[in-house]
Amino acid sequence: MKRLWSIIPQRYRHRTIWVAVTIFLRALLNFVGIATLIPILVLILDRNATSTNPYIAKLYTLLNPSSYAQFVVAVCAAIVGIIVLKNIATLLLYRTERNYIYGLYKHLSESLYLTYHNHGYSFVKSQNSAVLTRNVNVVSLMFVAGVLKPLATIISEALLFVLIMGAIAWYTPTVALLATAIFLPIVAIFYLVMRRRLNDIGELENTAQRLKSRIVAESFRGYADIEIGGAFPQMFSRFDSVINDIVKLRKRNATIGQLPQLFTEVGLAIGLATLVILSLGYSSEHMALVFGIFAVAAIRLIPSIRGIMSSWSTIRYNLYTIDTMSDAKADNITLPTHEVERINFRSTIELRNISYTFSDAAEPTIENLSLTIKQGERIGIQGSSGIGKTTLFNLMLGLYSPTAGAIYVDGVKLDNSNLRKWQNSIGYVSQSVFITEGTIAENIAFGEQADNIDYSRISKAIEQSDLKEFIASLDKGANTRIGEQGSRLSGGQRQRIGIARALYKGCDILLFDEATSSLDNTSEQNINRAIERLSAENNALTIVVIAHRDSSLEYCDRIITLGK
Q: What is the dihedral of CA 415, 418, 424, 428, to 10 degrees?
């Protein structure tokens, strides 16, 4: 409970109190619904109740009906009306709980999403994207639907159980004692037998679901390599094995889900049998009323106990979600905004004695590196694989923070206060340009809402990046959809869209990370000529290029070779 409370954000905690009040009121209304059936039961079992039962007698006097039949009809109509109103009120009260539960789901899912994002690039690269996706989309929902909601059910049903048992104890202690002696041991036995099994099954299924999601994501993401390598049978075999495990776990959980009904029905049979035995020493009229009270109570007690047991099972099954949701910094959630302010680069970028060491590395990837880049320069960076070229770019892009030293732009140190402004000034083209499942225009105006796209800037960026001929060949032009991850584009077209994106952004500095390494010679030369032409048209545009081939660095003013 402490861990659950720590996950609930501050702004939801005061609402928790109101939800608790509505749960109590719902339990009270359900009790009223049961209590109103007692007069009907008394009228059925005792036709002389208007004279023998003091409460019925008072009601009869108050209503003063013309006949006994009219009295019975009036009582039944009133009880039906009370139950209808009770159910309407219960639904209205439930809205508070429903809004709380699913509002909290939205908040926690967004919070977990932002928390993962704010951990930074190194965290995201070190995690499995399928696991993070499942946590944000599925686990957060299972936390509220599989832990908080059943917990509310347990509290509500437990309150109702106490109210009913208290009323029965006041009227006939024997029945209350009998019900307690039967049902409480049943709940205790179920708890002792199932508590560890349900927790283990839930954790095992979560692990299996994560693995299944990863296998499916990898099989589609690497479709070409998997198909050519003949690896799909092996992938499917892994998928089949995991889904078999999930089915087995689900079957075990489904079987356990039936146990509350079986336990409570056995308890009911024991209770009725006990009452029959006890009735041997009492009058038939007295035992008929006792039987009736026990039956009315059982109508609601059995579903209540079953609800408590089933909800507890659900909580145990989804207990693993608490560990995941503990990562959500719910109280510190800050919704992202589209910031357009930028640092206007005018003079120099200085890397002053910067070093960077990965958290799992024994030695720094970059150590004590100093470099000055002037506005308008065309800088080439080369070096052997693994030497730290991409890491250097990620530092310049602000995706990594130096473990030592600092980066200065026009003499101003880059830190969290101005990093977003700096990134707004940068255009970045990687070896594999990220393409969303949208139109070409949406990918060029990356980060803009579709309604806000400036198509005059789109046209200019298309022309400057040598995409004009390709766009003209498409029926819908820049509004053509290009498939998931740009599946309908060639390598050269993807890179040109990356360049067009940087140009649409109006960046002051362009960074190319092995942007042509996967292209054929003709495509590489075309891209290089496009970059060189851009530089010639805009003397203030600063270009930094990582490349293995010397041909990709021919237009550079300086070439820097990284080495140990």
A: -10
Residue 427, φ and ψ in degrees, nearest 5: -110, 135
Count other Cβ atoms within 10 Å, centred on residue 112: 24
Determine the Cα–Cα distance for residues 259 and 186; give it in Å rounded to an integer.
11
263 and 391 in a common domain: no
Q: Which two tokens stand for residue 381?
A: 């960076």
| Residue span of the structural domain in which 186 resides | 2-332
Provide mean pLDDT across the span 204-226: 77
Q: How many other CB atoms sit within 10 Å of the CB of residue 432?
A: 15
Determine the pLDDT at residue 353: 92
Q: Rounded to whole angstroms, how far apart are CA atoms 271 and 278?
A: 11
Q: Starting from the edge strand earliest in sequence, which strands make up the sheet with 558-561, in order? A: 426-429, 509-513, 542-546, 378-382, 558-561
Maximum mean pLDDT: which of 57-61, 412-416, 467-471: 412-416
Q: Worst-scoring range by mean pLDDT, 93-107, 173-187, 538-552?
A: 173-187
Which residues lie below 8 Å from residue 323, measured CB to CB, with a gap of 6+?
none
Residue 562 · residue 388 · CB < 8 Å = yes
Rounded mean pLDDT, 282-298: 62
Which two tokens mark 231?
Answer: 């690896």
Q: Between the ranges 9-23, 323-337, 526-540, where is the mean pLDDT highest?
A: 9-23
Determine the Cα–Cα distance for residues 350 and 353; give it in Å rounded to an integer.
9
* Pairwise CA distance, residues 95 & 98, whole Å: 5
User: Considering its fold, how many domains does the chain have in total?
Assistant: 2
Contact 440, 504 (CB under 8 A): no
Residue after which a domain boundary falls, among 332, 365, 397: 332
Write out the two tokens for 204.
Answer: 């095992």
N-terminal to C-terminal alpha carbon distance within the chain: 54
Query: What's the pLDDT at 417?
Result: 85
**Same domain for 147 and 253?**
yes
The CATH number that applies at residue 409 is 3.40.50.300
Q: How many CB atoms lie within 10 A of CB 521?
A: 10
Segment 304-332 shows an average pLDDT of 78
pLDDT value at 285 more than 60: no
pLDDT at 487 over 80: no
- Residue bearing the bigger pLDDT, 61 or 335: 61
